[in-house]
Design brief:
This protein is of the alpha/beta class and 377 residues long. Helices cover 36% and strands 20% of the residues. The chain has eleven helices and 15 strands. Helix 6 packs antiparallel against helix 7. The protein is globular, with a radius of gyration of 21 Å. It starts with a strand and ends with a helix.
């Protein structure tokens, strides 16, 4: 097991490396990228340095299409970094119009500046079902019920959908680029679960895997850690923490029973829950009962685990080297980012004023991940 003690990446990516065998490949790929129908905000996407395109969803036809953006100019001879979002229904591009008539566009996914890398990499970001490609910047919750086609989103916000979505894009790019070169996958938070499941299902398509800010167990672990942490901070009593944790156990069992007793597709005659509530239960179950830890045991490609040590959602990552040692596996590299949170902000305390400020170190994190990806194993 290797250990890298430098800061490292944000969000979710998949790196797809493909090389042009001849001028035909480049022409075919460029034509595909230029001839897709544009979304209403395509000018915003273009200004941000990306091109929009879509492909039919052949696994879930009710979704209609899989939409994604790719950095320009697209060069088949460059590696391609493919980003997967974490949880929530964010757009992939946000923009802000200033009073003086100027505007700014940037990507939510990837959540850090990538322009300086565009000469050496292609970047791809997939939109979630029912979400808009771009949106005016504003404060919004993780799950925004007023954003896009929310019903389509909540009916498809589950593990198997995202794995199938990713697989279709991977196969599309492989076919159109006429390339058999390796693909590297990186997923952040919920996206880490997707790429790990993908790697378990399609190991022949994955050369390297990066898991970033993802719990190796499930979402309930975070709630348990959070309550114990509140006791350490003196904010709640041990008795109150235990009461909350016991309720977490009960809720966990209820979700397991519900997802086992009812079919995934909503039927109002079989459950007292609303459609939204029903799918919330089912999708939550898809993220909770097939932990990354169980899948990692079966993977043999090089794996990099990147996480902030102040991130309670990923605190169980510290245990991974112990499991890999038990399994007799040596394909793990650990990259803890000291004192960083879930999205790689670090809290800095001024020694004189005791004032706190947050410092974003995600850009440095990405530099280190790219170094790992480019290193020969």
């Amino acid at each position: 097991m290797k250990k890298i003690m430098k800061p490292n990446l944000v969000c979710c990516l998949l790196i797809i490396v493909f090389y042009s065998c001849n001028n035909n490949t480049l022409a075919v790929t460029a034509e595909i990228l230029m001839n897709n129908a544009q979304p209403p905000c395509w000018e915003r996407v273009e200004k941000a340095g990306w091109t929009y395109f879509s492909i039919p969803d052949k696994v879930y036809p009710e979704v209609d299409s899989i939409r994604f953006i790719i950095s320009k100019p697209f060069n088949p001879e460059n590696p391609t970094i493919f980003f997967l979002q974490g949880s929530g229904n964010y757009p992939v591009v946000e923009y802000y119009d200033y009073p003086d008539g100027t505007s700014k566009q940037w990507t939510q996914t990837p959540p850090f500046p990538v322009n300086e890398y565009m000469k050496n990499y292609n970047f791809v970001s997939i939109a979630k079902p029912g979400t808009l490609i771009c949106k005016q910047s504003s404060e919004h919750p993780l799950i925004d019920t007023a954003f896009g086609n929310f019903r389509l989103f909540y009916k498809h916000d589950f593990m198997d959908y995202y794995v199938a979505q990713l697989n279709q894009v991977v196969d599309f790019i492989r076919k159109k680029s006429r390339s058999n070169t390796p693909f590297f996958f990186i997923g952040g938070s919920q996206g880490g679960r997707v790429v790990t499941k993908f790697a378990e299902k399609y190991p022949q398509k994955v050369q390297k895997l990066v898991i970033q800010s993802s719990s190796i167990l499930d979402r309930s672990v975070e709630n348990i850690y959070q309550n114990r942490h509140l006791v350490d901070l003196g904010k709640i009593s041990s008795e109150e923490a235990q009461k909350r944790i016991d309720l977490e156990y009960e809720w966990y069992q209820f979700k397991k029973d519900y997802s086992s007793d009812f079919p995934f597709k909503y039927d109002s005659t079989k459950t007292r829950f609303s459609e939204h509530r029903h799918y919330s239960m089912m999708t939550d179950a898809s993220w909770n009962f097939d932990p990354i830890l169980f899948q990692l045991q079966h993977l043999n490609m090089p794996i990099l685990v990147v996480y902030g040590t102040a991130d309670l959602k990923a605190r169980d990552n510290d245990l991974l080297p112990l499991f890999f040692t038990r399994w007799g596996k040596k394909n793990l590299t650990m990259m803890p980012v000291l004192d960083a949170d879930h999205i790689f902000f670090r809290t800095i305390i001024d020694k004189e004023t005791n004032e706190q400020k947050r410092e974003y170190i995600g850009k440095v994190v990405f530099v280190d991940i790219e170094k790992w990806l480019s290193t020969e194993e």
